[in-house]
Amino acid sequence: MVCLGNICRSPLADGLLLRKIKEQGLDVIVDSAGTANYHIGKAPDHRMIQTAAKHGTSLEFLRARQFTSKDFQNFDHILVMDQSNYHNVAKLARHADDLKKVEYFLHYLYPNQKEAVPDPYYGTLKDFEEVYQLVDKATDALIQKLIHEH
Ligand code: 4NP
Questions:
Q1: Which of 121, 131, 132 to mutate to test the pocket of ligand 1 (most atoms within 8 A of CB)?
Q2: CB of 44 closer than 6 A to ligand 1?
Q3: If we measure between CA atoms, which residue out of 18, 28, 8, 25 comes closest to residue 81?
Q4: CA distance 67 to 80
Q5: What pTM did the predictor assign?
Q6: Which of 88, 89, 106, 119 to mutate to test the pocket of ligand 1 (most atoms within 8 A of CB)?
């Protein structure tokens, strides 16, 4: 799960997917990272923690890190939140097989539409709630795919 800062969208996707994977008893490793280095080592944004907590998902244990080309080695799927993340991640791809792993996070909800999860960082709590609703639906779609793959 990749966004810009790794303190809003991707930690939510990470924490929510982790919770649903546990609920389903699936054996999948989930992690998140940001393409930027601004917030390395920090907990998620308090507005994202608060919004997720309201819906029963805890995120406070997560810490931001920066995406590196090693992630292509360690993960089968790299899911990006928007087009800018896509390009930043693609720049770090070592070869064509790396690039094949990069997909839009919303692809499982809106196939092939390159739809973005809007960045809520400069927004209000309402924007954080909208991100939650979108990421909740997308993680449900992703869980269905994982169930059918196993
Ligand atoms: P995220 O949101 O990419 O969803 O974690 C942002 C967090 C921080 C910044 C931008 C977006 N920032 O500019 O510091």
A1: 121
A2: no
A3: 8
A4: 11
A5: 0.97
A6: 119
Q: State the number of CA atoms in the 13 A half-sphere of 112 facing the CB.
A: 0
CA 77 to chain centre: 11
The token pair at 103 is 């997909």
User: pLDDT digits over 107-150, tens only?
Assistant: 999 998 999 999 999 999 999 999 999 999 999 999 999 998 86
The pair phi, psi for residue 78, each rounded to 5°, is -115, 110
Dist CA 125 CA 107 (whole Å): 25
Pick the residue whose CA is nearest to atom 6 on ligand 1: 5
Map tokens 């939510």 to a residue: 12
Note the Cα 141 to chain centre separation in Å: 14
Rounded to whole angstroms, the Cα distance separating 103 from 77 reads 7
